[in-house]
Backbone:
């Protein structure tokens, strides 16, 4: 039997286009023209021997075969990138101190640490999951080399925006489809301890809508917050990534709630020039985050 070797560039174009929901956005991400991406899509379909995408409205969605290749393609590309990183960075060693916002700790840390540790076994990573204010304080003071945190308007040096993440209202999974907060009573909010950007945004948007509100539950961490929302003690504002068990996103129009903005996600660096090890970890962080956000935001659509 003669095996077909999939073209890695074509596979990357296909996977990126499917994850971003647009081959135009894939062209921007990969630094290629849209015509080049179209050619790559045609090439991977020829190699697969079956159609991988089909039209749906104005866009394209994967066929059953396309969904299957998408699953394999992610694993193939991750292994390819891990192998290249291991070979190119075979001499990487040292220590990197990494801080992550709570929203991404469970989703991001295992994937990044596992991938990075396999490629660079001589590198030690000290990870810290913390709230925004603590992460920014520690990266500014030099106690962290890298940190992923929400954009809060602080003037922090050596930071860049890496993503724009939509916010959503979160409620108990068993809320009725036609549930709406009583207009005659304050909206019950479950939130984290102050200071909290999400808490501030929720209160501000309700104020703008002329709605009264009350804090029905306050928690120091996301586990308690998720449990409170799941139990129906109140609604909350979070992102579509890593929704707590027993909760679901609430459509603002259907549930008579104010629309919510998107929030910038920032990569903070402890100093302008980092070690090669920290630079490579930053690259892996951004790549993995892009995958996680694509999955989460697609689920929100």
Residues:
């Amino acid at each position: 039997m003669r095996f077909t070797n999939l073209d890695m560039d074509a596979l990357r174009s296909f996977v990126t286009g499917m994850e971003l929901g647009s081959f135009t956005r894939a062209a921007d991400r990969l630094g290629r023209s849209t015509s080049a991406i179209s050619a790559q899509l045609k090439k991977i379909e020829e190699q697969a021997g079956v159609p991988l995408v089909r039209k749906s409205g104005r866009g394209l969605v994967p066929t059953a075969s396309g969904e299957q290749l998408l699953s394999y393609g992610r694993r193939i590309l991750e292994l390819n990138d891990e192998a290249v990183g291991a070979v190119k960075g075979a001499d990487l060693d040292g220590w990197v101190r990494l801080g992550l916002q709570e929203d991404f700790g469970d989703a991001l840390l295992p994937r990044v640490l596992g991938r990075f540790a396999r490629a660079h076994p001589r590198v030690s990573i000290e990870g810290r999951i913390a709230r925004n204010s603590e992460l920014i304080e520690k990266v500014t003071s030099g106690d962290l080399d890298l940190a992923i945190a929400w954009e809060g308007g602080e003037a922090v040096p050596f930071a860049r925006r890496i993503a724009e993440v939509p916010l959503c209202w979160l409620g108990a999974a068993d809320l009725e489809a036609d549930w709406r907060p009583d207009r005659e009573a304050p909206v019950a909010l479950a939130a984290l301890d102050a200071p909290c950007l999400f808490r501030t945004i929720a209160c501000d948007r309700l104020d703008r809508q002329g709605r009264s509100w009350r804090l029905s539950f306050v928690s120091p961490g996301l586990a308690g917050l998720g449990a409170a929302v799941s139990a129906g003690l109140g609604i909350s504002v979070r992102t579509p990534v890593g929704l707590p068990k027993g909760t679901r996103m609430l459509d603002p129009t259907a549930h008579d709630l104010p629309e919510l903005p998107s929030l910038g996600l920032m990569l903070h660096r402890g100093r302008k020039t980092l070690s090669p090890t920290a630079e490579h970890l930053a690259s892996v962080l951004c790549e993995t985050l892009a995958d996680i956000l694509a999955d989460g935001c697609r689920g929100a659509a």
Summary: The radius of gyration is 22 Å. The chain has a mean pLDDT of 85. The chain has three domains: 8-87, 92-163+264-300, 168-260. The first strand starts at residue 53 and ends at 56.
